[in-house]
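Practice problem: predict the structure.
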Amino acid sequence: AAGLEPSDAFHKIFPRCEYVQLKRGEPLPFADQSFDLAFSNAVLEHVGSRARQQAFLLELVRVGKRAFITTPNRWHPIEFHTATALIHYLPTTTYRRIYRALGFDFFSKEENLNLLDDSALWSLLPADVRSRTEIDAHRFLGIRSNLLLTLRDAPQR
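Answer:
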C-alpha cells in the first residue's frame, strides 16, 4: 500500500502489510510494471491541475501492468466531497468562489479538488494507452456517480 501519510496508523490496522509513504507530486518509487494491478480509488481528483493529473495517471500506468482507477463524475448532481448539489455544474471559477463563501475553502482550491468528466479523463491518456483503456461508470440513484477507468495488460517490453 502507498499513501501520503506516515505509516503508523496504517500499520496499526494492517501490521503485516508493507506501506510506502509517497511524496506529493513526485514519481512513484517503484520500477516499471512492478505490480500486476495499480489501483487508485478517488485520488485523481485531488492531485491538482490537469497536467498533474496526467502525470499521476501515467505513473500508475508505468508501475502497473494493469490499472483500475476511480474518480467522481463531475456531472453527478451531488458533489460528494462537499455534499452540495449542482454548484459544481457552474464554471470552475464560479463554483470555487461559491465553495469559499460556503466555508469549503480546502475544496475550493484546484490542488485539493479538480473534478473530471469522461472527456477530461480521456484527454489525460496518450493514444497508445487509450487503445487498451475503457471508461465505464458506477451509478448512484441511476445517475453516473463515479468514473471507472480500466487499463488492460501492457504490451511486453
